[in-house]
Amino acid sequence: MLSNLPVPRAAETFGQIDPELARQIAYAMSLTSSIEAPALHRIGMALVHAADLVPQPALDSGPVEKVGAILNFSQAATRETVLAGLDDDDADFAENVRKAIFTWANIPARIDPRDISRITREVDGITLIKAMAGAKGKDQPTVDFILSALSSRLADLMREEITALGKVTAKDAEEAMNAVVAAIRRMEAAGDLFLIAADAESED
């Protein structure tokens, strides 16, 4: 199989194999120079058959990740009610879901300050200002975290824009915060940034 893969893909696969097994495979590849087409076809069919026997999950992600992703973009009241109920139903599952959740309030604990400038460039400016202007209570530390990670000139400019925007409804603020979170998730999925591992106790 490795002999027939493009070199970059074969190298990627090879790098994920146990070193001792990789050595054995490398030696086996040295014996393939005289292999005939019928034998190669039989080997290929055997590999396809083996792959078909590997159980394939019906869903594209586990229940923890799926519930966490749904709650990420649910209204805060719904999220808190669901998590409280899960605590009663299955405390271990609830704890794992909390680790999978990433919301606006989690930004200070799970984002490296050095990534904030790149995140602010990824998010629409008005959306970010609206999110910060509407942040209250447990969401306020995220505003302080973002501003402290930026240059003083840019932070002062954002403070002026927040003041000029004035009052933001809770609904508009939550939508803006979710938009920021969605942008961070897109960057994470693309490998442009990495979230710091969640601490279950800090999620409470």
UniProtKB/TrEMBL annotation:
<protein>
    <submittedName>
        <fullName>FliG C-terminal domain-containing protein</fullName>
    </submittedName>
</protein>
<dbReference type="InterPro" id="IPR000090">
    <property type="entry name" value="Flg_Motor_Flig"/>
</dbReference>
<dbReference type="InterPro" id="IPR023087">
    <property type="entry name" value="Flg_Motor_Flig_C"/>
</dbReference>
<dbReference type="InterPro" id="IPR011002">
    <property type="entry name" value="FliG_a-hlx"/>
</dbReference>
<dbReference type="Pfam" id="PF01706">
    <property type="entry name" value="FliG_C"/>
</dbReference>
<feature type="domain" description="Flagellar motor switch protein FliG C-terminal">
    <location>
        <begin position="85"/>
        <end position="194"/>
    </location>
</feature>
<comment type="function">
    <text>FliG is one of three proteins (FliG, FliN, FliM) that forms the rotor-mounted switch complex (C ring), located at the base of the basal body. This complex interacts with the CheY and CheZ chemotaxis proteins, in addition to contacting components of the motor that determine the direction of flagellar rotation.</text>
</comment>
